Amino acid sequence: MAWKKKRKLHGKNKNYSISKFLRNQFKSNDEFEVMLNNLSLEEIIALKLELASKSAGGYLYGIPLWRSLKQIVEDAVLKYALSATRTRTEMARLLGLRKIELRKIDWEYNPTSYFEEQDS
Q: How do the pLDDT tens digits run along the chain, 120 residues long?
């Protein structure tokens, strides 16, 4: 058959999309996403650090980059998992965590606050 069954979006996570969120804030568009897709994750991180370094006067001394990597990566993966799944149970399965572990991590990082609209 030529048609695909559409994924039913039910659950708390159905409205979370990083791409949509960034587009609504005018931080992303189609062209940018195509260019970004052509870079590896390592290139994106290196470029982001280089740009941050330039804006800080050329050096990032005093910032514990190496020790912060684990938290940065975990936060990014949680935001992706939240946008890619429909429920917390699905999110826990995707991440390979038990629900109790996810609850603890969710409390620590609070990824849903990223997607909530800020009234400013």
A: 455 555 555 566 656 888 888 998 999 999 999 999 999 999 999 999 999 888 888 778 888 889 999 999 999 999 999 999 988 899 999 999 999 999 999 899 988 888 876 544
* Separation CA 22–CA 45 (nearest Å): 18
**Measured CA distances, 7 to 67, 88, 116 (Å):** 39, 17, 24
* Rounded Cα gap, residues 43 and 62, in angstroms: 23
The pTM of this model reads 0.74
Helix, strand or coil for residue 31? helix
For 53-115, the three-class secondary structure string (H helix, E strand, C coil) is HHHCCCCCCCCCHHHHHHHHHHHHHHHHHHHHCCCHHHHHHHHCCCHHHHHHHHHHHCCHHHH
Burial class, 71, CB count within 10 angstroms (exposed 0-12 / middle 13-18 / buried 19+): exposed
